[in-house]
Design goal:
Blueprint lengths: L8 H6 L2 E6 L7 H4 L5 E6 L3 H9 L7 E4 L2 E2 L4 E8 L12 H4 L10 E10 L1 H7 L7 E4 L5 H6 L2 H5 L4 E7 L10 H9 L3 E11 L16 E11 L1 H6 L7 H17 L3 H13 L5 H12 L3 H4 L7 H15 L8 E3 L6
Parallel strand pairs: 1-2, 1-7, 2-3, 4-6, 7-8
Antiparallel strand pairs: 5-6, 8-10, 9-10, 9-11
Helix pairs in contact: 10-11, 11-12
């Protein structure tokens, strides 16, 4: 499914989605690749080696700007712990008292500590005269809340959504947890739409090479937030640029669809129609575009025995799906659309 609507292509070309990818060592999130047609990215990666790897990567969008910069809530110098597994490096010291209860704790082994000059996201954007950020993806191993505090101006402005890694337990010493991050984000008019949790199983109770059939403990999750539709559109009223406001509404629609929330995409379109950013005809095109997604499933008529067949396939799925027995972790990634 295309998250963009052909009738508005000229608008998307003039005002592409602007994504801030903070903690970019893993590359652009997979779900965002389907938006590459009308996407610009400013990506921040503090680790010098990871930054160099990104620049050498063969899989790059032409519209990505990589910056070897570290973000925080203020401009200062902070310690940065480099760990055995690069993606676990953090401004917070790993909490080995907790981590040692689970397999492979040595991936958090500290190899070196370096001093980093840090800045805020708001300062970085201001220096580059970027004022129209649409979405923030944030994965920085415990420092997410501090970075969000340094992005207060952006969060109060034109940002529509966030994807933030949040922890429910202290992987790192003295790090903020989900409740802290969630409370801060909600203060800017965002609401939680999705969680993709990761579970870990403890070392105790191994059976051979596998693990006991336990679900494990929820450790962290990718949390997706969107601004409340009515509040988001009201925040655009200060601008007299009708084309820009119309584009912001359409980009919010596309971002909602990108994460699979088609109902919310249509709701935003309805609000945009009410404030005359979209005509009745344009809203009908938008609604039809998303309502038709997956409509082939509804074209199969009801028939006797349909429920039994569905139950049979579900039973097969339960037998074949990945087992908790074989791995010590289970990561329910955000569903791709």
């Amino acid at each position: 499914m295309s998250v963009f609507i052909d009738a508005f292509e000229e608008c998307y070309q003039q005002f592409p989605i602007l994504l801030a990818d903070i903690g970019a060592s893993g590359g652009i999130p997979v779900e965002w690749e389907q938006a590459s047609r009308f996407l610009q990215v400013i990506a921040f990666e503090p680790d010098k080696q990871a930054f160099a790897n990104l620049l050498e990567s063969e899989k790059q969008l032409s519209s990505i700007k990589y910056l070897n910069a570290a973000l925080y809530e203020e401009q200062k110098t902070v310690g940065f712990y480099l760990t055995e597994q690069q993606t676990n490096s953090s401004m917070f010291r790993p909490n080995r008292a907790f981590l040692d209860r689970f397999p492979n704790p040595d991936r958090f082994e500290i190899l070196n500590t370096v001093q980093l000059e840090v800045s805020t996201l708001d300062n970085q954007l201001s220096e580059r005269k970027i004022t129209d950020l649409d979405f923030i993806k944030l994965d920085t191993q415990g420092s997410e809340l501090a970075i969000l505090k340094g992005a207060a101006e952006s969060l109060s402005g034109s940002v529509f959504g966030l994807a933030v890694e949040v922890e429910f337990v202290p992987i790192y010493q003295e790090q903020p947890l989900f409740s802290d991050v969630d409370s801060f984000i909600r203060g800017f008019g965002f609401q939680l739409f999705d969680l993709a949790p990761c579970y870990w199983k403890r070392i105790v109770g191994r059976l051979g090479k596998g693990y006991i059939p336990s679900k494990g403990q929820i450790i962290f999750a990718d949390a997706v937030y969107f601004r409340k539709a009515e509040h988001f559109l009201e925040s655009l009223d200060g601008s007299g640029n009708l084309a820009w406001k119309r584009a912001k509404a359409l980009k919010a629609v596309s971002i909602s669809a990108l994460y699979g929330h088609l109902d919310y995409a249509i709701e935003i379109g309805e609000y945009a129609r009410q404030v005359r950013l979209l005509s009745d005809h344009e809203f009908d095109l938008l609604r039809k575009h998303f309502e038709d997604t997956g409509s082939f499933l509804h074209e199969i008529p009801n028939f006797r025995g349909r429920g039994r067949i569905a139950n049979l396939f579900y039973s097969i799925y339960k037998v074949l799906r990945p087992s908790y027995h074989r791995h010590w972790y289970k990561y329910n990634k955000l569903e791709e659309w």
